Amino acid sequence: MPLIKYQFKAGVVREGTAYTAEGGWYNSDKIRFRSGHPEKIGGWQKYSSNTFLGSARSLYNYAAASGTHYVGVGTNLKFYIADGVTYNDITPIRATTSAGDVTFSATNGDATLTVTDASNGSAQNDFVTFSGAASLGGLITADVLNQEYQIATIVSANSYTVEAKDTDGDTVTANSSDSGNGGSSVVGAYQISVGLDVYVSATGWGVGTWGAGGFGSASSLDDTNQLRLYSQDNFGDDLIFCPRAGGIYYWDQSSGVSTRAVAFSALGSASNTPTKCLQIMVSDIDRHIIAFGSNAIGASTLDPLLVRWSDQESAVDWTPTSTNSAGGVKISSGSEIVGALRTRQEILIWTDSGLHSMRFVGAPFIFSFNEVMSGVSMISPNACVNANGVVYFMDRGSFFMYSGRVSPLPCSVRNYIYGDINLGQAYKVFGVANIDFNEVMWFYPSSSSDEIDRYVIYNYIENVWSIGTMVRTAWIEAHLENNPIAAGKTGTGSNYLYNQESGHDDDGSAMTAYIESGDFDIQDGNNFMLISRVIPDIEFQNADSSDEMDVLIKGRDYPADSLTTLSTSSLTSSTQQAFVRCRSRQAALRFETSGSGYGWRLGYFRMDTRPDGRQ
Description:
The protein contains 2 helices and 51 strands. The chain is mostly beta strands. The strands form 14 sheets. The chain has a 5-stranded antiparallel β-sheet, with no helix packed on it. Strands 1-51-44-48 form a 4-stranded antiparallel β-sheet, with no helix packed on it.
């Protein structure tokens, strides 16, 4: 019987049916293409065994002049600065009470403490740290009270509850002796309010943290009642960051990782610093701090099209004068700035109706603004990525590239992605570059999920696409580190960062990876075909003699039939051939591994295939 070589074209194609993808690949998971051939992607390992609170949707890596590497981690609950493997909580303080403003009350046999503090402005899940408290008289000691708590419920505008715990985090139940109020020296330090872990597209019911506002009351969107998305950048050794639609904060590296960030307005000599903005950035050459979508000078409300910038080399001077370069411009089209990206010699700004270019031109105008293209936008503030001198971005219905002008990006899996994406949570979508493999990736939530559970990869050198599943909420190339760094998410509330492209496994566990071809046939399906032998061409990486790849031959007689597995062969690095017996009018090949500790790459497969009648 004749041997037929099967050379499938690189890239996954999902723009038609499995039958129209004949000669190519139709489905994949944990696969990339390199030099035209599919291979298993790299695995991942925990960046640190330490955990952090909340879903991290912003990561930023930089090095101080001392050589210390930092990673800024912005979650919906906290903001951390990581130096090494420790996550240091630098979440800013929004308000600190006077001594005695805070009092406690406890009930015998209950761990719930009611905290009274007039007009404290808190919402459920906010964090507060108490100090200066005395014992309530029994088991609720000073050590129990004087620590950080997360607010459990909002009782009224003047009171809320927390659950008493000891310094190990174990619940403490009050006894009959706990009748005091904590004394006259209690101080409460309230951290900036937490944000949501879901996207809300409008005001009204469902907007805001639980317990904020009256039943069904409308709320204007701001950083406390919307999906928490941070933007961050370094200003020299220091870090600046901003929750979308919230305040701008400054962390002074020289003060150490135990010092919290502070609001720009609290910095010495602060002059008309923005109090709210959608995104913050430092320009590359001229070193202005730029606020995209900011409040105007003298105003408290956010103008979503206003771009403001500080004086050159200054974080605190935002007042335009004849002797400095601070200023501002309102974008002329659209209703909101979606996102901005720093590129070579320009900054790209996406509004909800077009793309604009911002370039440094010097005095007297400082920056020039030009519309690049109208009618395009981004699906989310983080859906753009700069790779190899080209900007790639994802809109609500297609992919685009920018290299001086905007061009649609042909995509062989476009219908697959946009036919099964949760557009209600589209603001969670983010794009990343994986330069070592000539790839850009977008992570997005499928239609059945409120959280990111899928990805799509585009290899911009080979112009091919692949798809797969993975739960990630943020990712950075992390050029200062050995591997890209990504944020995962667990259901327990304690989450991790991961070193990506490290090893072959899912953090020490086996990782399933597969690729499946489109359907193929003989003589346009005029005959059934008989497959009797498979000769593999697999390159195993770091595998031992027992590590296997399963090759599944699937078949169906008509395109409307479901694929049925006809044969499964387990192949090792020493397998020369596998004998099978499969009969079908159409067939597809699936290559899959679920073992640990090894990778693989496919070459060309040969099979004994012959016509086997017309019945």
